C-alpha cells in the first residue's frame, strides 16, 4: 500500500471520528434543549442528562483522539517517520 493511500486512510479515519463526535454533540444539545424548562423535577432531570451527556462526550472525545493518534502513527510508520520511543516501531529496509 502506498504512503498516499495510508495518509488518505488516516485522514479518513480522523474525519469519520470527528463527524461522529459532532453528531453526538448535536444529539446531546438537542436532548438538553428538549427537556429544559418546566418543574423542578424536569430541571433536575435535565441537569442529570446534561451531566450524563458531558461524560459521554468526554469519553467519545478520548476515543476520537486515540483513533486520530493511531492513524497518525500508522502514517508515520508507513512513511518511515515512526518514533520508537512513542511505542511505535519502524523497520529499516535496505536495498541490495
UniProtKB/TrEMBL annotation:
InterPro entries: LEA1/2/D7/KIN2. Residues 1-96 are annotated as: Disordered. Transmembrane segments: none annotated. Residues 24-47, 80-96 have a biased composition (Polar residues). PANTHER family: LATE EMBRYOGENESIS ABUNDANT PROTEIN (LEA) FAMILY PROTEIN. This is Late embryogenesis abundant protein 1-like. The gene is LOC103711870.
Amino acid at each position: 500500500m502506498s504512503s498516499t493511500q495510508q495518509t488518505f486512510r488516516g485522514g479518513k479515519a480522523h474525519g469519520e471520528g470527528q463527524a461522529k463526535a459532532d453528531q453526538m454533540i448535536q444529539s446531546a444539545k438537542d436532548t438538553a434543549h428538549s427537556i429544559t424548562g418546566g418543574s423542578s423535577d424536569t430541571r433536575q432531570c435535565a441537569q442529570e442528562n446534561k451531566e450524563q451527556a458531558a461524560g459521554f462526550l468526554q469519553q467519545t472525545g478520548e476515543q476520537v483522539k486515540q483513533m486520530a493518534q493511531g492513524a497518525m502513527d500508522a502514517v508515520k510508520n508507513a512513511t518511515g517517520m515512526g518514533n520508537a520511543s512513542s511505542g511505535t516501531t519502524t523497520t529499516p529496509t535496505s536495498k541490495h
